[in-house]
TrEMBL record:
Protein name: chorismate mutase
Domain Chorismate mutase, first and last residues per copy: 3-94
Enzyme Commission number: 5.4.99.5
NCBIfam families tied to this protein: CM_mono_cladeE, PRK09239.1
GO process annotations (BP): chorismate metabolic process; salicylic acid biosynthetic process
Lineage top rank: taxon: Bacteria
GO MF annotation terms: chorismate mutase activity
Amino acid sequence: MAETPDPTLAGFRKSIDNIDAALIHMLAERFRITQAVGEYKARAALPPADPAREAAQIARLRALAEDAHLDPEFSEKFIRFVIDEVIRHHEKARGA
C-alpha cells in the first residue's frame, strides 16, 4: 500500500527545488559575466586575481549574510569557492 505524501513536506520541497533552480541560473549568469571579465583582463594584460577586490567582496557578503541571518562562515566559504573558480577561469583565459 502506497503511503500518502505529506502535503506540507511536498510544499516545502517544491519551494526548495525552485530556489535550487534559481541558484543554478544565477550562478550560470554570474559565470557568463566573470568569463567576459577574464577575457577582458587577458586582453588588457591585467592579473587574473584581485586580492583587494576579493577581500572587499568577502567582507561585504559576510555582512549581507549576517543581515540575512545566514552563517557568515558558510557564506565566506561559498564565495571563496566561487572566487577560486573564477580565478581559475581567468588564468585559463590568460594562458597561465
